[in-house]
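Pilot study result, target chain (170 residues):
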Amino acid sequence: MTTIAFKDKIMASDSHIVGAYIDQLSADKIYQCGNFLIGCAGAVSDIKKFISYIDNGWREIDLPKEVVDTFEALAYDMSDGQLWYYDGSYTGVETGEISAIGSGQGFAMGAMLAGADASEAVAIASELDPYTGGEIKIYHLEEELEAPPEVEEPVSKTKKNKKKKHGKEH
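Predicted structure:
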């Protein structure tokens, strides 16, 4: 489970992942893919497929025939400043300037609407949501990268913490 928050050109996420044989507190959930900064929550296999979809220029590459509800993503288009929400339908919906996804979404949204920034919102969600935790990973979009990493290399900075349509071609 995950909490990813976006506000004021800052995307932040927790780093806790849990699976059948995995319990890790330092996973990266924010990636740069072309002009997009993408925060993903859900099943790793579906997230990888979604990242490949974007990396291949939004062309269908063995996409699921049916809508899957095992992942969601926030994608910030650095070329035009738009924030998009994606789910298993692979169709993007433009969101407002403040958004959050994952199991701690409600906590993070409430925190941001009360004045917290994205990283503070994830920290608050980690206190309230039992599925959010680990280090908080932060990406400030106003900081320019000289050589953006490839999809396999997450784009993030860490902070220790205790506790219109877009996409599918039609």
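One observation from the pilot: The chain has three helices and 13 strands. A full batch analysis is planned for the follow-on phase.
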